[in-house]
From TrEMBL:
Signal peptide: none annotated. Keywords: Membrane, Transmembrane, Transmembrane helix. NCBIfam families: crt_membr_arch, CruF_Halo. The chain crosses the membrane at residues 31-49, 61-80, 87-105, 125-151, 163-187, 203-221. It comes from the Archaea. Pfam families: Caroten_synth (PF04240). This is Carotenoid biosynthesis protein. InterPro entries: BABR_hydratase, CruF, CruF-like.
């Protein structure tokens, strides 16, 4: 074997070793990441909105970004083995689109309606949108897409089933997210809309953004290889668990019952994937032990 061949094998071995360590960290802390972090996040955001936290802690952008990154870690680590240069390219395009459509939205009121960020979610790009916007948005699309693949099973082979279902899932995610985000003061619409302060135009905009995002994600990955990875990686959808707990809890606390009910539908979808065992989750809550399942 020549030197370049040995170098390639060594690189692959190093990558596999790093991947293994990352998976161990996520796997050993699943309950903390997927349950404790979103519950604490919901409490602190509501306390911030209600003026119960002092200024250094209320809406602290570093805490928001750190908590978001931790909750995203199962998805990121789970998908890393399926990330190649093709995936990076398509996600790069999606990142650029995410910034562009959000800046246009803030400055022109199209396509979401008139809205503005009421607090700074970390550094702001061009003074208009959070620099960390892709960290907030792209994982939501990936979660919706992965859940679609698992729930549809064989029907996911057809784009006529796969794409509309994934787009609908992305919009449904925002039906949970936006009412809760408005309630805790992340952003606000002018004038407020009929859906817990959110206008219908926002969801028309999300249909557009969701369609573009889902199509890019669909083209980014080798779908069969991705599905095989998702089936083998028991924690890859834990970020969606975090999402449901965080924003579903906030919706319940503010009486956004329809939004809370939609988050319940995502719970049913997650349970249907046969990777979340209510009994073992309850045991983990009571004992503080490692969250495991029969799949591990």
């Amino acid at each position: 074997m020549d030197r370049s061949g040995r170098s390639t094998l060594e690189d692959e071995s190093t990558r596999e070793a790093i991947q293994g360590r990352l998976e161990d960290v996520v796997r050993d802390n699943r309950f903390t990441i997927a349950v404790v972090f979103p519950v604490v996040g919901a409490i602190t955001l509501v306390a911030s909105a209600e003026g119960l936290l002092p200024d250094p802690l209320a809406y602290n952008p570093l805490l928001i970004l750190f908590g978001t990154a931790v909750m995203r870690s199962p998805l990121i680590v789970g998908l890393l083995p399926r990330v190649d240069w093709r995936v990076v390219g398509f996600l790069g395009v999606l990142t650029a689109y995410t910034y562009a459509i959000e800046i246009v939205g803030v400055r022109t009121d199209w396509p979401y309606g008139a809205f503005e960020y009421a607090i700074q979610l970390g550094p702001m790009l061009l003074g208009a949108v959070p620099l960390a916007l892709p960290l907030f948005f792209i994982p939501l699309v990936l979660n919706a897409y992965l859940l679609t693949l698992l729930v549809l099973e064989g029907r996911a082979d057809s784009p006529l089933y796969r794409l509309p279902t994934a787009i609908a899932a992305v919009v449904a995610i925002d039906l949970v997210l936006d009412p809760a985000a408005v309630a805790v003061g992340f952003w606000e619409f002018t004038p407020p809309g009929p859906y817990y302060g959110v206008p219908v135009s926002n969801y028309l905009g999300w249909i557009l953004s969701g369609t573009v995002a889902v199509v890019l994600v669909d083209h980014a990955f080798d779908r069969r290889a991705l599905l095989e990875r998702v089936r083998r990686c028991e924690f890859v959808l834990d970020d969606l668990v975090s999402f449901v707990l965080l924003w579903g809890t906030i919706n319940v606390l503010y009486g956004n019952w329809l939004a809370a009910a939609i988050s319940g539908l995502f719970c049913l979808g997650l349970l249907s994937t046969d990777r979340y065992d209510v009994r073992t989750m309850t045991t983990a809550v009571r004992s503080g032990t490692r969250w495991t399942s029969d799949r591990e």
